[in-house]
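Hi Q.,

Before the meeting this afternoon, I wanted you to have the adenosine-5'-triphosphate prediction in hand. No need to reply - just skim if you have a minute. The sequence and ligand are here:
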Amino acid sequence: MALETDQLGKRYGDTWALRDCSLHLPEGRIAALVGPNGAGKTTLLHMAVGLLRPDAGAASVFGRSPYDDTAVLADIGFVAQDTPLYPDFTAAELITMGGKLNKVWDDALARTRLAQLGIPPDKPVGKLSGGQRAQVALALALAKRPRLLLLDEPVASLDPLARREFLQALMGSVADSGTTVLLSSHLLADLERVCDYLIVLNSAQVQLVGPVDDLVAEHCRLVGPRHDGEPIAGVAAIVRASHTDRQSTLLVRTDGPITDPAWTVHEVTLEDLILTYLAEGETQGSHEAWGVTA
Ligand code: ATP
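Predicted structure with the ligand bound:
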């Protein structure tokens, strides 16, 4: 496992920013970390990179605690939400500094990437645009050749074209190296294109976790006669239901084929699934996490 958490929790005063968070992220995956503002995404990433000490449970990266065993940090690349970089340093100077601070460092990768993007290497990064700074931060993180790359909303400040290029470059570079990526974002269409693993957080808790293909395959939308709670063969759980006088539409998790001819079965997209779980979390608060083993 690249990242594993067991009942992980972080509390600020009386409020849990993250609670009972248990999940596995297998090596080699590109995982989306999704949830509304304040769900606990940044808190989870900060504990995964050892910036925060857990108040409950444990986090481990490649079997080691990132907070207690700092040697594992050499395997982790992290780009924080506000891409903090020393503003008076130029990109070229930051690349040189990275080479001196890290045992493994691919200088050429960082320089080539910035040249391809037309980012001036000799301008203080404080004077670059927000999107250019995000690109510099990613180039630095990739140059470290990390085994696990954690990105907190990396594309939020990029224009649509730069966003697509950024995600393509990310996929290309991790496909070559086998790096595991955990990427938080609110841009579901982007995530659908690049991610093969999903973690949904809501109200400080994990709601859904597993490989995207499995999660999509085991959910569907059923449309049929008004449903009053009677069991439906093949349905393990109803995630969300809406009703008219005569008809019900149910987003369900299945545990077998739906054979009852009264119900029409429609496939769901990843976006449908995420939005449904998030809406369900909004209305019901905490919720048992549905997990799929990788
Ligand atoms: P966003 O999508 O807005 O970035 P997020 O999912 O990353 O949100 P977190 O930043 O992890 O959310 O915050 C989770 C909760 O913890 C929020 O309720 C937030 O107010 C609270 N929180 C985060 N950092 C602190 C802090 N330093 N002190 C007190 N509360 C905090």
